[in-house]
Amino acid sequence: MVRAVIFDFGGVLMRTVTPAPRRELGQRLGLSLEEVEEAVFGSPRWDEVQLGRISYTEFWEDAARRLGWDVGDAKGLGDAFWSGDRLDEELMALIRHLRDEGYRTALLSNAPSHLRQFVEGLGIAGAFDEIIISSCEGLMKPNPAIFELMLARLGARAEEALFVDDFRVNVAAARQVGLRAVRFRGLAPLRKQLRELGIPAPDPVLAPLPDVRAVVFDWGGVMEASPDDAYVAGWERRLALEPSTLPQVLWGKVWRQLEVGAISNDDFMRHIADRLSLPDAEAAVSFVREFYSGDWFNPEVAAAVRTLRASYQVALLSNAWPGQDEAIREQFGIDVHTEFDVYVNSAEVGLRKPDPAIFYLTLERLGVAPQQAIFLDDSLRNVDSARELGIHAVQFVDPQTSLAELETLLDLGFADL
Length: 417
Fold this sequence. Notes:
Layout: E1 4-7, E2 14-16, H1 20-29, H2 33-41, H3 44-50, H4 56-67, H5 74-82, E3 85-87, H6 89-100, E4 104-109, H7 115-122, E5 130-133, H8 134-137, H9 144-154, E6 161-165, H10 168-177, E7 180-183, H11 187-196, E8 214-217, H12 229-238, H13 245-251, H14 253-259, H15 265-275, H16 281-291, H17 299-308, E9 313-318, H18 324-332, H19 336-339, E10 342-345, H20 346-349, H21 356-366, E11 373-377, H22 380-388, E12 392-395, H23 399-410
Parallel strand pairs: 1-4, 1-6, 4-5, 6-7, 8-9, 8-11, 9-10, 11-12
Antiparallel strand pairs: 2-3
Helix pairs in contact: 1-2, 3-4, 4-5, 13-14, 15-16
């Protein structure tokens, strides 16, 4: 029985909901958004500050020197980098609910020591029975010792605690210690995971939205389900890969280049062949086909799209590869150009979610304002970005859950249309 629930901070409670500030930093520094993030999170000094070996100020002074920024304004660099982050107030409400229900709650974060003061400044420290910050302990996740330390301070056995984190490696490490652990993908899927463990998680408070004129769907993860962690882990064992390797191969930096049309499909297949030690690009194509060969299509969502078109404009907004429309026609017999009023493929327009520009482009093609659209996507980062722009967004969990939420927001039953 679960008695304690432990939450990560960055990427869970506090998330980067808009990439705009980091993109603007990149423009000032002559770097891409990815290069700006790599300069911070890829720096060897990032681990040092999280282990308490250097101060937060020293970290940003070093970053300023490496990036050619005025070292005297190192704090300004750090403030600008984090300025797109927002606290998830709805998740905090759930944590307070759990504490009121008698669960012990805790915060376990790999972070610089200033995080404790920051959390207190946010007014959320009182929602946790324990707060452990890596830099204050000289221990970092996924080191098993930091989980054991948290359990000791909570006075809980491993099997009595649930750990919630956005990094696969930390989730896997927690399970090795004996904790129950789930990877955070958003509040909507977390509610479902908590209920499956017998932990109370109230439904979101929803009300019909006035003036909605368009509904925008993602493809992967919505129209077609995406492979889950267990499926990916099974393939990693089959290929004798280290955990978390396959997501980086399939959906990492090189995939993001394909999504904006910066490389070709052939380039991407050569990348897969190289990373998975396959003989050639043709073998990579065969692997990809087998990997995605399951019955992933969600016919309920396709039916909802067709029904909605009687009263709303409907769009498909997909981070995809060149030729996705042809692949969908071949595999599912669906012509996205006739099934949807608007089809936006990231590789064709050179923009990818969560870039605000691709949302604005989609809204422009639909001829609607942000508040006149509802967006369904399984990716939390994309949902966060859409909400930041004023678009109503539903994080897709499964057809039953998410279509019911859409019905409430539109104040209808699909059978009514």
